[in-house]
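hi! just following up on the protien thing from before. the input was this:
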Amino acid sequence: MSWLSIALFGVWPYIALTMFVIGNIWRWRTDQFGWTTRTSELSEKKLLMWASPIFHFGMLAVLIGHLMGLVIPEGWMTSIGISPEGYHIMAVSLGTVAGLIFTLGVVLLILRRFILKTRIRLVTRPGDIVMYILLGLIIIIGMSATLGYNVLGPGYDYRASIGVWLRSIFMANPAISVMAAAPWIYQLHAALALGLFAVWPFSRLVHMWSVPVGYLTRPPIVYRQAARV
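and the predicted 3d structure came back as:
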């Protein structure tokens, strides 16, 4: 086992997760008024109207897909009647669609911020630039792995390697050797994804914690016309 594997898959996960947790706490305690996306809607609205929903729905679908594939053990899927072949077809088809939607959303947001509207780029913070770079690399590598291995290639069961490694991190006993045996493209994808979690608190992604979930359960607001005097 090389020192690089130990650093990337035994040490780096805990550094990234520590930065994620402490960074979010620090951001909340010191910058509550900046706990937003710092909207640029006043500078450009037409493209944002399409790019933002596509990005958010695509990201949500990708996160749910990753959680199902990496956090839920294969045996649990089998116990509810989902065979490995059935899971593979479902994961590849739905994952590809979700990845393409997410890719489109990121591309539209990057075009809007850095190419089409210069004044938006001028108010972009360094943390957001790093975020966009990481998102772009993660998407390119992730889609390449999906298409190269599971669509056009022989297939790769990441649940038996990357999933085992991910769950072992939270058990404080990282299965470094399992991850080190995975194809390099999956290793790079995982390392960059951890980097995204590390910079998360210092970018506009922090607004995820302010999602207005309460809107779903609050009572309806009744508007009444004022009585004429």
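The chain has one domain: 3-30+45-208.
Residues 84-116 form the longest helix (33 residues).
cheers
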